[in-house]
Amino acid sequence: MMTETVNPVERVIGLDVHPHSFTAALIRGPTPAAAIVEKICNRVALGQLRSWVQKQTTTQDRIVLEASGNSFAVARSLLALDRRVLVLESCQLGKLKEAHANNDKISAVRIAKAYLAGTAKEVWIPDPLTQERRDLFHLHRKAVKYATQARNSLLSYLSDNEVTLKKGTPLCQAPQAEAQLRQARSWTPRQWQVIEGLLLRLRQADQQRAHWRSLIAQEVLADPQLLSLVRLGGIRDLIAFALGALVGDIHRFSHPKKLVKYVGLNPAFDESGQQKWSGGIGGHGRKDLRSLLIEAAQAILRSSTPLARWGRKLLVAKGCPNLAVAAVARKLTVAIWYLMMGRWTRLEEIEARLTYKLGKIISQVGVQRLQESAKPRKQWRLEAIEKLKAASIHPAVSAVPATA
Questions:
Q1: How far apart are alpha carbons 118 and 99 in whole angstroms?
Q2: What is the rounded CA–CA span in Å between residue 278 and residue 320?
Q3: C-alpha distances in angstroms, 395 versus 121, 331, 341, 354?
Q4: In this structure, how many other beta carbons lie within 10 angstroms of the beta carbon of residue 17?
Q5: Which residues, 6+ apart, have CB-to-CB distance to 268 below 8 Å?
Q6: Coil, strand or helix: which one is 188?
Q7: CATH number for position 21
Q8: Alpha-carbon distance 310 to 73, whole Å?
Q9: Do 381 and 346 fall within a single domain?
Q10: 239 and 348 co-located in one domain
Q11: Domain boundary among 166, 187, 221
Q12: Pairing mode, strands 275-278 and 269-272
C-alpha cells in the first residue's frame, strides 16, 4: 500500500506573481489531499507585497513561487524579511494546469499543492551578482540573434535582386559596404532606400552586440575566477562569463557529475521491462550553456592538446563525431568544476597559447574602451597575467592540467 509523504511544513503560501500584482493562497495541511485553503488574497498590488507578507505570514511558513520574469527578485526581497522562500520550475507547474479553467486564484493554490506533492523541481535563486551577469549574458545572446537576423535579411534582399556577395564581405563598415553594393548593379531609388534601411538596421544590431561583448570581456578580465577559466582549452571570455552567469555558486554542485547533469551532457536513457532506449544529450539541462561547451569541444578537437588526442582516439574507435564531441565536452565540464572549486595546479608561467588568448580577450574590449581606459594593451595584458598567477596560489587538492 502506497503512503503519501508527510510534509513537515504546517502552512504553505502559494504566490502567483505578476508585474503589477500578486495573488496568494494560504494552505494548511501535510499533503495535497489533506490541505485546506485558509485564505486567498486576489490581485493585491505588488508594491504591498512586503507589508502583506509581514502581516499575513510567519517565519515558519513556506512561501512558494513559480519561476517567471520577476520571481527571483521577489524571492530575494522576501528572503531579506527572514521568510522561507522557494522557487519551483515553471515547466513542471505548467503540466499541472487545468485545460478547462485557470485564473490567478487557481494558479496560487496549484503552486502551493505542487510543493506539498513534491512533483515540482526547486530552482536555485541566484545571488544579485549572478543575476546581473545572467541579464548581461542574455542581452548579448539577443543582440547576436538580432545581428544575425539583420544580416540574413540584407543578404536575402540582395539575393532576390540577383546580387551575391563574397563570404566575409564587411557589411557593417558603412562606406565600404555602400560603395560595394552600389557597384553590384543598377538600383532604383526605392531599392536603394530599402538597402540603406537594412544596412542601418545591421549596423545598429552589430553595435549592440559589440557593446555587450565588450562589457563581458571587461568583466572576465576584472574577475580572477572567471579569468582563470581561460586556462582550459576551448574557453575564452564568452564561455568563461557564461559559466559565471549560469552556474553561479559552484559549491551548490557537490560533485562534477552534478555539474555535468545540470549542463545536460549526461546521456538520456529509458529502461522499462525488456525495452531499453539510450538517447543523446538533448532535451534536458541548460541548452544555452551546453551549446557553448559543445563549441568549445569542437575547438579542442582541432588542437593538439592531450584532451584533443583522447577525443580523436574515441572518434576512431566509435566512428561517431557527435559522440566524441559530447565526450570531450563532458571531460571539459569536469575540469571546469575542479577549477571553479579552486582545485587547480599552480600557474608557474604563462605559455604562448594563453598569452594569445589574453590578447584576443583584450581585443574584444574594443578600441574605444581601451582608449578611454588610458592604459596601453601591454598593461592590460600584464594585469591579466598577474590576476592569473594570483588566482593560482591556492593549493591543488586535485590537480587539473592548465590546458585541458
A1: 21
A2: 15
A3: 36, 22, 11, 21
A4: 24
A5: 278, 279, 280, 281, 282, 283, 284
A6: coil
A7: 3.30.420.40
A8: 44
A9: yes
A10: yes
A11: 221
A12: antiparallel
Sequence-distant (6+) residues with CB within 8 A of 372 are: none
Quick check: helix, strand or coil at residue 143? helix
Residue 217, amino acid: A
Report pLDDT digits (tens) over 176-230.
888 888 888 899 999 999 999 999 999 999 999 999 999 999 999 999 889 999 9
Is 403 within a domain?
no
Task: Provide the residue range defining the domain that includes 374.
Answer: 224-391
Residue 285 Rama label (left phi>0; alpha psi -120 to 50; beta): left
Look up cell 527571483; give the residue: 72
The CB density around residue 220, as the number of other CB atoms within 10 Å, is 26
Say if CB 338 and CB 348 are below 8 A apart. no
Pair (236, 258) in one structural domain: yes
Cβ–Cβ under 8 Å, residues 120 and 88? yes
Partnered with residue 27 across adjacent β-strands are 12, 37
Angle at 267 between CA 125 and CA 227, to 5 degrees: 50
Q: Is residue 235 a contact partner of residue 229, using CB atoms and an 8 Å limit? A: yes
Query: 179, 187, 122, 120: which is closest to 160 by C-alpha?
Result: 187
Phi and psi (nearest 5°) for 37?
-80, 110
Instruction: Please report the pLDDT score of residue 30 as a whole number.
Output: 85
The pLDDT assigned to 101 comes to: 57
Gap between the Cα atoms of 227 and 241, Å rounded: 9
Task: Say how far apart CA 274 and CA 219 lie, in whole Å.
Answer: 52
**β strands within 245-379, DSSP E:** 269-272, 275-278
C-alpha closest to that of 238 among 161, 141, 311: 141
The alpha carbon of 386 is separated from its chain's Cα centroid by a whole number of angstroms, namely 28
Positions in the chain whose pLDDT score sits under 70 = 1-9, 91-101, 268-283, 348, 391-404
Distances in whole angstroms, Cα of residue 148 to Cα of each of 94, 200, 206: 32, 14, 9
Q: Which residue has the cell 515547466?
A: 91
Same-domain check for residues 232 and 350: yes
- Answer with the one of 94, 123, 152 that is the final residue of a domain: 123
